[in-house]
Amino acid sequence: RCVILNVPFDFFLVLEKRYLEILGCSSVCQLCTGRQINCRNLGLSSVPKNFPETLYLDNSGIVYVYPKAFVELKHLYFLYLNDNFIKRLDPGMFEGLSNLRNLYLQSNQVSFVPRGVFNDLVSVQYLNLQRNRLTVLGSGTFVGMIALRILDLSNNEILRISDSGFQHLENLDCLSLEGNNLTKVPSNAFRVLRSLKRLSLSHNHIEAIQPFAFKGLVNLEYLLLKNARIKNVTRHGFSGINNLKHLILSHNGLQNLNSDTFSLLKNLIHLQLDRNRIINIDNDTFENMGASLKILNLSFNNLTDLHPKVLMPLSSLTHLQANSNPWECNCKLLGLRDWLVSSAITLNIYCQNPPSMRG
């Protein structure tokens, strides 16, 4: 469908169903206000030199961008290259874009990012690379991106991240790695991300949270580990993230929780443990988060009983969900009933056994 032509470095050409020479934006584009130009879906044949702050090239059939293609667009703030067929990012591709703030590269076919390709993007705060074909993040993948705040790498095929893969991202606030093929938390790579507040590793193949897996993420507040196939959280697995407030562990394979599982999360407000395989929770599991935890979800597990001592330390708890467990309504559950009567917590428990009390 598309053919890339060899042209001077300040243009890149795409040949589609028709040839189109753009002499000025007003003759072609849907919107040309002096601040924004919309040239989507127009079968472009060239990129003019004097676009203003926003350039839409998404869904345009582009397969390759030549080095220095944007070198004249020094005042560009927003560049949309998403939903194309770009397979390679070559050094020099973004030369001249020192003022760019947002770069959209999602839904392409990029399989590797060479070191230095983002060197010139010193002002970019938002980079979207989701839904590409990345498998490895090599050393210095994002070198030069000193202003980056939000990085979306979700829904790629990432297996490995170099220890220096996030070099220069000391100001990063939000990182999404969900929907990849990671088998462990890339702990060494994370250690430079001291400003990170939100991290998603959902929908990976992690299985176990190893000791000090998140060490260095001292400002982390949101950690999403939904459907990451986690079966075990080792002692000190959450060490080093004492400021964590929201932990999402839904849809995993956890079975037993004990005093080591969450012992260092003293500021946690919200804990999602629904849709695991939990059969046992030790009495002191939540002891250290008693003053902070407000929301706890234990729904859709394999709990048959729950000792009130598990919940007694949670003096700040306002919302508790534990529905869809196979509760056995016998003497073991009387303590929980009595605790609920004396607390402000409302909890609906439907008996699985004995059969005479089912429902």
TrEMBL record:
Transmembrane stretches, start-end = none
Instruction: Specify one Pfam family.
Output: LRR_8
State if 4Fe-4S is listed as a keyword.
Answer: no
Q: Which UniProt keywords apply?
A: Glycoprotein, Leucine-rich repeat, Repeat, Signal
UniProt superkingdom: Eukaryota
Xref: Gene3D superfamilies: Ribonuclease Inhibitor
Please indicate if the UniProt record lists Glycoprotein as a keyword. yes
User: Can you name this protein?
Assistant: Leucine rich repeat containing 70
